[in-house]
Write a structure and sequence with these properties.
about 425 residues, mainly beta, 6-stranded antiparallel beta sheet, 5-stranded antiparallel beta sheet, 38 strands
């Protein structure tokens, strides 16, 4: 292996013989920390196996046929030193993940690569059929999400009429749940909480121009069974569920001829409890205990009580121009990221501002902050990096950036005492603050 010494900004790495196209592998691992960069090469898996589940084709593929390896790049230009860095063969598509995973995974058009938390080595590739459309994710009519990684399983609804669960490392531990015939069409997974996956099947627009119907459903993952399903005469999607088990409410977004509204249902049965007007585009909904945060229609946030009545609203002041993104709550506070690059901490009970923190980059609706312990990690654009804010004070602790080019926002996950931060073709493992 040849290397060039000097500052990280000028560093370059090249494998012996790679300039001649001699080596092929689906990804490279660049180890960080300790005595400096350490480069190691791995195949995804020796050999290949195929597991047919519920009519969907899944493949555990090896290095063959994945094309030439991407060139390894230097690791961090600023911020904490990565424990390791994985570089995939193509750009990741984190917008397809419904919730942040609890382990390092690399999801792209080709499928999902399960990585080793210890060194970032690829352990298994799960390729599911059908793949996302070629124009993904620019096809805004197709909702984000629909792929869930939780504990040791990957859940998808890619095979018609089935919910498929694939074990990330053990091919024999997968299962598939056939759903009733009254759930025809394309299944969409839209929310997850307390071991239950919620989704919908949306009907096609009617010839007379009226709003099509839909069917909602809930699947218990531990029970591996359909808990309930019901038909709705409007288009409706589950969005978020209040914390805890039992009859805690489930919030859904319903399309009306005049806009959208929030519908809150009994999570155990699907029975409608109450509705409330939504502030224009119901692009997000966040559960805060038994209550829900929604957009207020003017760029801010509104907290709806357990009875559906507004408790407080936090909106742009006169002369301000910003739009709130999906908030992140803890036990007593709500952290509101804004597209102007500011994070505001509000008291949950009254909506009072406790502190505001200015980030070194702007945000957009793809940015999904992650709260772990006493630190809020906020992902920015590829060139911006990831910032850590200490939630007790609002102080900006550090910002991590890498030298790789890219056009996507950073995506975050955490587990096992590590923060997994990636964008485009790279995924870094960082020590949690």
């Amino acid at each position: 292996m040849k290397s060039s010494e000097g500052p990280a900004q000028e560093a370059s790495w090249q494998w012996d013989g790679e300039a001649d196209g001699a080596a092929e592998t689906p990804g490279d691992v660049i180890g960080g920390g300790g005595g400096g960069p350490r480069l190691s090469r791995r195949g995804l898996l020796v050999g290949a196996g195929v597991l047919a589940v519920g009519g969907a084709a899944w493949a555990v593929t090896g290095a063959q046929g994945d094309g030439p390896a991407p060139q390894p790049q230097p690791t961090a230009l600023a911020g904490p030193t990565p424990l390791w860095t994985y570089r995939g063969p193509e750009a990741t598509t984190p917008e397809r993940l419904l919730v942040p995973p609890d382990r390092p995974v690399f999801l792209s058009r080709a499928g999902l690569r399960a990585l080793d938390p210890g060194d970032g080595g690829p352990k298994r590739l799960l390729s599911f059929d059908p793949p996302p459309p070629k124009d993904w994710p620019s096809d805004l009519e197709r909702p984000a999400g629909n792929v869930v990684v939780s504990r040791d399983y990957l859940y998808t609804a890619t095979s018609r009429g089935h919910l498929d669960a694939h074990h990330l490392t053990d091919p024999t531990a997968g299962w598939s749940l056939p759903l009733p015939d009254d759930l025809p069409g394309e299944l969409q997974l839209t929310a997850m909480a307390a071991g239950v996956l919620y989704g919908c099947v949306l009907g096609w627009p009617r010839a007379n121009g009226t709003v099509p119907s839909s069917r909602l459903f809930a699947v218990g993952l531990e029970e591996r069974s359909l808990l309930w399903s019901l038909a709705i005469d409007r288009q409706e999607r589950p969005l978020a569920r209040a914390s805890g088990y039992g009859d805690h409410p489930l919030a859904c977004g319903r399309s009306l001829d005049t806009g959208t509204e929030l519908v809150v249902r009994d999570a155990a049965t699907g029975r409608e409890l109450w509705t409330a007007p939504a502030g224009g585009d119901l692009s997000w909904c966040t559960a805060v205990g038994q209550e829900f945060l929604v957009p207020d229609g003017s760029g801010g946030v509104r907290l709806l009580g357990a009875d559906g009545k507004p408790r407080w609203t936090h909106s742009p002041a006169r002369g301000e121009s910003w739009r709130a993104l999906a908030p992140v709550p803890d036990a007593v506070r709500v952290f509101v990221p804004r597209d102007d690059g500011v994070v505001t901490c509000l008291d949950t009970s009254e909506g009072r501002v406790l502190w505001s923190s200015k980030l070194p980059f702007l945000l957009d609706r793809r940015s999904r902050p992650l709260l772990d312990g006493g630190t809020l990690y906020v992902p920015g654009p590829a060139a911006g990096g990831v910032s850590a804010i200490y939630t007790a004070t609002g102080v900006l602790g550090w910002t991590f950036r890498d030298s790789g080019p890219g056009r996507n926002v950073w995506n975050l996950a955490s587990g096992g005492g590590r923060l997994y931060a990636g964008h485009d073709e790279v995924l870094h493992a960082l020590p949690l603050t």
